[in-house]
Amino acid sequence: MVYDKVAARYDRAMAPLEKGFLAGWRAETLALLPENAKILEIGAGTGANFRFYPPAECAVASELSLAMLDLARSKTEAVSLIQADAEVLPFAANSFDAAFATLVFCSIPKPENAFAEIRRIVRPGGRVVLLEHVRPDGALGVLFDFFNVFTTALIADRFNRRTASCAAESGLDVLEVRRKMLGVFNLIVCENR
Ligand SMILES: C[S@@+](CC[C@H](N)C(=O)[O-])C[C@H]1O[C@@H](n2cnc3c(N)ncnc32)[C@H](O)[C@@H]1O
């Protein structure tokens, strides 16, 4: 898995983006989660979101890469960590009040499977919040289709995902899409039916 290989360098590589805009967007994303609820993070990586978690009844962070998860472990005692594939989540139906992910759906081979799992484990009426880089509209989108050929082959990162549409097709109600940086990033707010 590519993230097992890049884990040790991930935080350092992301530091300029965190400082520039990402940390602010993370705070905005996690502020949309309910407080004192059961929340699940998907693809938590090295735990960059931990400092923005709201007070929770139960907070669980799942992640596929063991190397990323090891680094995350050093950043929290309050969050329960579990190795899990977003496409096959090891939780009972309706276990959570909310689920969220940041910069994850570009890496998941079959996002429709992950959305089906999210719909299963989040209770009806529960919230799903995503901060994702996506295919922007217009000419920029065509450029991203081109980039996608290389990013998929080199780092298994799809640059032309239409994540909000995929969420809607899965049956989630998409309440709001906040476009950021010319629509290259989307903050997607959904409710489970
Ligand atoms: C770009 S990193 C983002 C990490 C973190 N969410 C953040 O915002 O810094 C993508 C993460 O998604 C994880 N990931 C990729 N495919 C996954 C899957 N099928 N299930 C769970 N996590 C996955 C990777 O291991 C990696 O940690």
Shape: globular
> In the CATH hierarchy, what is the superfamily?
Vaccinia Virus protein VP39
Order of helices and strands: HEEHEEHEHHEE
Strand line-up of the largest beta sheet = 3-2-1-4-5-7-6
Report helical residue fraction: 25-40%
Q: For the record, what CATH class applies?
A: Alpha Beta
Bound molecules: S-adenosylmethionine
**Weakly predicted, low-confidence segments:** none
| Total domain count | 1
Number of helices: 5
Question: Over all CA atoms, what is the radius of gyration?
Answer: 16 Å
**What is the makeup of the main sheet?**
7 strands, mixed
Task: Please state the structural category.
Answer: alpha/beta
The tally of beta strands, per DSSP, is 7
Q: What is the average of the pLDDT values?
A: 98
Kindly list the characteristics that best describe this protein.
193 residues, single chain, alpha/beta, binds S-adenosylmethionine, globular, Rossmann fold
Q: What does this molecule look like?
A:
With 193 residues, this protein is α/β, with parallel strands linked by helices. The chain has a single domain (2-191), classed as Vaccinia Virus protein VP39 (Rossmann fold, 3-Layer(aba) Sandwich), CATH 3.40.50.150. It is 38% helix and 25% strand. It is built from 5 helices and 7 strands; from the N terminus they run H-E-E-H-E-E-H-E-H-H-E-E. It has helices at 2-30, 66-73, 111-121, 138-155, 163-169, and strands at 38-42, 58-63, 80-83, 96-102, 122-133, 173-180, 185-191. It has a 7-stranded mixed β-sheet with strand order 3-2-1-4-5-7-6, with helices on both faces. Helix 1 (2-30) crosses helix 2 (66-73). It is globular, with a radius of gyration of 16 Å. It starts with a helix and ends with a strand. S-adenosylmethionine binds at residues 3, 42-45, 48, 63-65, 68, 85-87, 102-104, 107-108.
